[in-house]
């Protein structure tokens, strides 16, 4: 099968690499977001998908807005004849004039069990809301976001240790495992698909900057879920000794002690530090990042800041 691939971040590049390794799948071209400034130098850097595509000598197209530049995109694509467009975390919505071009249409991989968690942050939201399972949905692209008919769904379990990075890796692996047999086994017709039950739809949006501020009055599990949803890229933060501290990784603790003091720190030994939450339960800190410092394991934090039971997060 001949396809064109639309994607941008690291998980997309992993799927692209898997597709490149299949001799039965021919990739005609790749579409990804424009190069973006990174690092202190602010030098524009290619997306992970672009790097893989260029290393494979594939044609690469980039648009600030494919919706606004659809005429140019249609002209760019006119010399190719893929059977199918495959989209995974491209970062922009394809207009109908684009996704209708291939003879088998276009399909999208979405990181939830649709129609649940349609929208921009299904992986983070599943963690934020304390889900114990999620999945990857392969769907037909339509005019409305994430409302297309479902081709296949694969469930993915969520552990208490998962954060957005590890869960996204699980979802990507499930997507690869599901997609490759579909593409290799279907050569002569569009995929069979089932309409979604739109009455059961739920939605999610991008996480806002103010949502990174941790409310220490929340129950321990709610705080744990928020911290892991914000990791490993954003991080949730509070105050420590008048300065910001980012909490990158925690785990629930069985420790209990009288006295409801949200934010109170409890040093257990040279490498263990807990903090109390709004329901009286504690979370154990695994890694943190004090203001103007690098991310560090909690043992280094304990050694560097000489934590006592009088300290607390605010």
From TrEMBL:
Its EC number is 2.1.2.9. Residues 1-176 form the Formyl transferase N-terminal domain. The lineage of its organism: Bacteria, Pseudomonadati, Spirochaetota, Spirochaetia, Leptospirales. It catalyses: L-methionyl-tRNA(fMet) + (6R)-10-formyltetrahydrofolate = N-formyl-L-methionyl-tRNA(fMet) + (6S)-5,6,7,8-tetrahydrofolate + H(+). It is an enzyme of class 2 (transferase). The keyword Protein biosynthesis applies. Residues 206-306 form the Formyl transferase C-terminal domain. GO terms for molecular function: methionyl-tRNA formyltransferase activity. (6S)-5,6,7,8-tetrahydrofolate binds at residues 112-115. InterPro entries: Fmt (IPR005794), Formyl_trans_C (IPR005793), Formyl_trans_C_sf (IPR037022), Formyl_transf_N (IPR002376), Formyl_transf_N_sf (IPR036477), Formyl_transferase-like_C_sf (IPR011034), Met-tRNA-FMT_C (IPR044135), Met-tRNA-FMT_N (IPR041711). It comes from the Bacteria. PANTHER family: METHIONYL-TRNA FORMYLTRANSFERASE, METHIONYL-TRNA FORMYLTRANSFERASE, MITOCHONDRIAL. Keywords: Protein biosynthesis, Transferase. This is Methionyl-tRNA formyltransferase. One of its GO terms (cellular component) is cytosol. Belongs to the Fmt family. Attaches a formyl group to the free amino group of methionyl-tRNA(fMet). The formyl group appears to play a dual role in the initiator identity of N-formylmethionyl-tRNA by promoting its recognition by IF2 and preventing the misappropriation of this tRNA by the elongation apparatus.
């Amino acid at each position: 099968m001949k396809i064109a691939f639309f994607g941008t971040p690291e998980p997309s590049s992993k799927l692209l690499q898997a597709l490149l390794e299949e001799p039965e799948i021919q990739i005609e071209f790749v579409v990804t977001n424009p190069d973006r400034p990174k690092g202190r130098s602010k030098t524009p850097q290619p997306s992970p998908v672009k790097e893989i595509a260029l290393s494979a000598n594939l044609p690469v197209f980039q648009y600030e807005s494919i919706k606004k530049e659809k005429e140019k995109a249609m002209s760019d694509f006119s010399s190719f004849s893929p059977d199918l467009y495959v989209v995974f975390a491209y970062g922009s919505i394809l207009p109908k004039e684009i996704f209708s071009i291939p003879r088998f249409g276009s399909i999208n991989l979405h990181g939830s069990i649709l129609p649940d968690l349609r929208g921009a942050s299904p992986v983070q939201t599943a963690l934020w809301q304390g889900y114990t399972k999620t999945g990857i949905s392969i769907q037909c692209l339509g005019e409305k976001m994430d409302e297309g008919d479902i081709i296949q769904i694969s469930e993915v379990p969520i552990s208490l240790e998962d954060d957005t990075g590890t869960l996204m890796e699980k979802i990507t692996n499930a997507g690869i495992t599901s997609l490759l047999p579909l593409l290799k086994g279907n050569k002569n017709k569009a995929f069979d698909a089932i309409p979604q039950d739109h009455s059961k739809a739920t939605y999610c949006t991008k996480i806002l900057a103010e949502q990174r501020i941790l409310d220490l009055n929340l129950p321990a599990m709610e705080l744990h879920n928020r911290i892991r949803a914000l990791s490993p890229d954003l991080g949730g933060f509070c105050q420590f000794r008048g300065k910001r501290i980012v909490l990158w990784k925690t785990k629930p603790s069985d420790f209990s002690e009288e006295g409801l003091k949200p934010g109170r720190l409890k040093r257990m030994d040279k490498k263990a530090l807990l903090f109390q939450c709004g329901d009286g339960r504690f979370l154990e800190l695994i890694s943190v990042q004090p203001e103007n410092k690098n991310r560090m394991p909690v043992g280094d934090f304990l050694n560097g800041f000489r934590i006592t039971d009088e300290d607390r997060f605010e």
